[in-house]
Amino acid sequence: MRNAMRCLAAMAVAGFVVVAAGCTYVKLEPAAEEVATLDKERAEKCEKLGQTRVSVAKKVGFIARGDKSIKKDLEILARNSAADMGGDTVAPLTEVQDGKQTFGVYDCLDD
């Protein structure tokens, strides 16, 4: 019986690690919901307002986060920042490195 309980506990911890590594932790602000993401080449046709460097944790405790989750959180942070700057579009200017990435902030839509 003790071995069964230990096995269940180990499975629960392993399940938590898998779920936590794939979670996103950043909330998209309401003002950023309409901010689009384009590739750098397409965004060059727009008016550049500036850039933002965003970063997130690569680990939560001892659990390494997945690359997809990190990338998603960085994009959300960039969109939030673009909304604060009056932009309607972001485009990645650099690759993700150590949980950090730089995005250009643009005004692409005709008002």
Shape: elongated
Give the structural class.
alpha+beta
Number of domains: 1
Q: Mean pLDDT score, rounded? A: 84
The profile of the biggest β sheet is: 4 strands, mixed
Number of extended strands: 6
* Biggest β-sheet: strands ordered side by side in the sheet: 1-5-6-2
Architecture in CATH?
Answer: 2-Layer Sandwich
Low-confidence stretches: 7-22
Run of helices and strands: HEHEEEHEE
Beta-strand percentage range: 15-25%
Cα gyration radius (Å): 18 Å
What fold name goes in the CATH topology slot? Translation Initiation Factor IF3
Beginning-to-end CA distance, first to last residue = 68 Å
Measured as a percent range, the helix fraction is: 25-40%
* The CATH C-level class name: Alpha Beta
> Count the helices. How many?
3
Helices and strands, with pairings:
Blueprint: H1 2-22, E1 36-37, H2 40-43, E2 47-55, E3 59-60, E4 63-64, H3 67-85, E5 89-92, E6 100-107
Parallel strand pairs: 1-5
Antiparallel strand pairs: 2-6, 3-4, 5-6
Relevant terms:
111 residues, alpha+beta, Translation Initiation Factor IF3, 4-stranded mixed β-sheet, 3 helices, 6 strands, elongated
Outline the structure in words.
The chain has 111 residues and is of the alpha+beta class. It has a single domain, classed as Translation Initiation Factor IF3, CATH 3.30.110. It is 40% helix and 24% strand. It has 3 helices and 6 strands. It has helices spanning 2-22, 40-43, 67-85; strands spanning 36-37, 47-55, 59-60, 63-64, 89-92, 100-107. The strands form 2 sheets. It has a 4-stranded mixed β-sheet, covered by helices on one side. The longest helix has 21 residues, at 2-22. It starts with a helix and ends with a strand.
